[in-house]
C-alpha cells in the first residue's frame, strides 16, 4: 500500500455532496457543451478542476476575517498583509490585486510594448494572453524533458540556458522586457524549478540588463521539492527556501488563491520603486486603491494568516503525499500519467490514454468529459484547447503535452475521495476502446477558450 499520512487537521464543518446517476451526468455534460467548466458545481461530486481559490480555510483564517478593517484607504489590514508578503517572500513593494491575472495584466501593461519578446519556462494561458494582448511574443525556453511525460527529471521546470541565450541573441536585450518564470510550472504538470537554475537564469538575464519576474502562486510547493530533491537544501526550512527562490528575482506576481489558502486575492511584489509607482497607478485604474487592490480587508487578513500556514511542513508534506497516493494508484494500474507527480495535480497523459483520438479532436477534453460521466469528477483539459490559436496565423496550437489535469484543492478531500477518483480513472482507462471519436468546437471564444467554449461530438450524440 502506498504511504498516506493522516491529514494534519480535524474537520469542523462539512458541505454535502449531491449523489447523481450516470444518466443525469450524461445530460448535464451535454447541456454544458461537453465542457466541464460550464457544469454547475452542485452537479459535480469531486471537483478537481482547479486548486485555485478552492482550498478550505483554517480556524485561524476564519478568525482573521473578523479582524478585517474595511476602510477604503490605508486599512490596517493592508499593513498586516504587506508585512506577511515582505516577511515570507522578501519583496519591498507590495501591491494588492484581486487575483493573479490582475497582477499579470498590470505587469504586462507596465513593461511590454508591441514587437517585444518574452522568454519563459513554458506558457500559462492567462499569462501568455496578457503578454500577447499587449504586443509581445512568448518563447518557451524550458528544458526538453518537460515535454516528455515519462522523463524522470527532478526539476522539469528548469530553463534551458542555451535556449535563453539563443532568444537573447536573436532579438537583443532591448526587445526583451523581462523573463517570465513559474515555480512550479503548471502546464508541465506542476513541475518545479531548482534554486540553482533559477539563480543562473537571473544571473544571465541581469548580465544583459533584463529583469526576471516569478509567478509565485505555488512557490511553496516548489520549495518542498527543492528541500526533497536539490542537494544542499534538505536541512533548510520551507520558509528559508521560499525566500531563496525569490531572492534573485526582480519581482513576482502572486495568486493567493493557491499556496496562501485563500478564496480570492493576490499581489505584485517588486524591488524597483519606480516600477512600483507605475504599477500602483495602473492598479488604481483596473483593480482598486493601492491599499486594497480589489480585495476586502477580510481577504487581506485571511491571506496573511494563510501565508504563515503555507510554509508549515506538516501541511505541505500531507498535501504532496495525497497527490503521490492518487498518482501512485493510477500508475500501478497502467493509467498513463505525467512523471514525476507534480505539486498541485496529477495529470493523465491523454494522447497515451486515448491514442485513437487525433489531436484535432481534443483527446484531453474528451477524456475530461468521459471521467465526469463515469463518476461526477471534474478535471480540466490542458492541451490543444488551452493552448488557443496562434495570433498571427489563426491556426490551432498543439503543444507537446495533452493531458487531463486533476488539481486537488488543499485541505478539502480525504483519502476516500482520492480512491473514488482513482477507481473512476482506472475504470475509464479499462474501457477506453469504447471512446471512438472526440469533440469539435460548437462555440469558440477569442481568449482563454477552455473556460467558455462549447463542444459537440464529432459523430453522433455522445463520445462513447
TrEMBL record:
GO terms (BP aspect): antibiotic biosynthetic process; aromatic amino acid metabolic process
What is the name attached to this protein's record? Tyrosine phenol-lyase
Query: Which residues are annotated with the PTM N6-(pyridoxal phosphate)lysine?
Result: 258
> Which cofactor names does the annotation list?
pyridoxal 5'-phosphate
Record field: transmembrane: none
Q: Which organism is it from?
A: Amycolatopsis xylanica
The UniProt similarity line reads:
Belongs to the beta-eliminating lyase family.
Give the Gene Ontology MF terms in alphabetical order. Answer: carbon-carbon lyase activity
Q: Where is the Aromatic amino acid beta-eliminating lyase/threonine aldolase domain?
A: 47-423
Keyword annotations for this protein, in alphabetical order, are:
Antibiotic biosynthesis, Lyase, Pyridoxal phosphate
Q: Which SUPFAM superfamilies match?
A: PLP-dependent transferases
Amino acid at each position: 500500500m502506498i504511504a498516506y499520512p493522516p491529514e494534519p487537521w480535524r474537520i469542523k464543518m462539512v458541505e454535502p455532496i449531491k449523489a447523481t446517476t450516470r444518466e443525469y451526468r450524461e445530460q448535464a455534460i451535454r447541456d454544458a457543451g461537453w465542457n466541464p467548466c460550464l457544469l454547475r458545481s452542485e452537479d459535480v461530486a469531486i471537483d478537481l478542476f482547479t486548486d485555485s481559490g478552492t482550498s478550505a480555510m483554517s480556524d485561524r483564517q476564519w478568525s482573521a476575517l473578523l479582524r478585517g478593517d474595511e476602510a477604503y484607504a490605508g486599512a490596517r489590514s493592508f499593513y498586516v498583509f504587506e508585512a506577511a508578503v515582505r516577511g515570507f517572500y522578501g519583496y519591498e513593494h507590495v501591491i494588492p490585486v484581486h487575483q493573479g491575472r490582475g497582477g499579470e495584466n498590470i505587469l504586462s501593461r507596465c513593461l511590454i510594448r508591441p514587437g517585444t519578446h518574452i522568454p519563459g519556462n513554458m506558457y500559462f494561458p492567462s499569462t501568455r494572453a496578457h503578454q500577447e494582448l499587449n504586443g509581445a511574443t512568448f518563447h518557451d525556453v524550458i528544458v526538453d524533458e518537460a515535454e516528455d511525460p515519462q522523463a524522470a527529471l527532478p526539476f522539469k521546470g528548469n530553463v534551458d540556458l542555451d535556449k535563453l541565450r539563443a532568444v537573447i541573441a536573436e532579438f537583443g536585450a532591448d526587445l526583451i522586457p523581462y523573463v517570465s518564470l513559474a515555480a512550479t510550472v503548471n502546464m508541465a504538470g506542476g513541475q518545479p524549478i531548482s534554486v540553482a537554475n533559477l539563480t543562473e537564469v537571473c544571473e544571465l538575464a541581469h548580465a544583459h540588463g533584463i529583469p526576471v519576474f516569478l509567478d509565485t502562486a505555488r512557490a511553496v510547493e516548489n520549495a518542498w521539492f527543492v528541500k526533497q530533491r536539490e542537494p544542499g537544501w534538505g536541512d533548510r526550512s520551507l520558509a528559508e527556501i521560499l525566500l531563496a527562490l525569490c531572492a534573485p528575482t526582480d519581482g513576482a506576481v502572486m495568486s493567493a488563491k493557491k499556496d496562501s489558502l485563500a478564496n480570492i486575492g493576490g499581489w505584485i511584489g517588486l524591488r524597483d520603486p519606480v516600477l512600483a509607482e507605475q504599477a500602483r497607478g495602473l492598479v488604481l485604474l483596473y483593480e482598486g486603491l493601492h491599499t486594497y487592490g480589489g480585495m476586502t480587508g477580510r481577504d487581506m487578513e485571511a491571506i496573511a494568516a494563510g501565508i504563515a500556514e503555507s510554509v508549515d511542513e506538516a501541511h505541505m508534506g500531507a498535501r504532496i503525499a495525497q497527490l503521490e497516493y492518487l498518482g501512485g494508484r493510477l500508475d500501478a494500474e497502467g493509467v498513463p500519467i505525467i512523471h514525476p507527480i507534480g505539486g498541485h495535480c496529477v495529470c493523465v497523459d491523454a494522447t497515451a490514454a486515448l491514442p485513437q483520438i487525433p489531436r484535432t479532436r481534443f483527446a484531453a477534453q474528451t477524456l475530461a468529459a468521459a471521467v465526469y460521466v463515469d463518476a461526477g469528477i471534474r478535471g480540466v483539459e490542458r492541451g490543444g484547447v488551452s493552448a488557443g490559436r496562434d495570433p498571427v496565423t489563426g491556426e490551432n496550437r498543439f503543444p507537446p503535452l495533452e493531458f487531463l489535469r486533476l488539481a486537488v484543492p488543499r485541505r478539502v478531500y480525504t483519502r476516500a475521495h482520492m480512491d473514488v477518483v482513482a477507481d473512476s480513472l482506472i475504470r475509464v482507462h479499462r474501457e477506453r476502446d469504447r471512446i471512438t471519436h472526440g469533440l469539435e468546437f460548437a462555440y469558440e471564444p477569442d481568449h482563454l477558450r477552455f473556460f467558455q467554449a462549447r463542444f459537440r461530438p464529432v459523430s453522433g450524440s455522445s463520445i462513447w
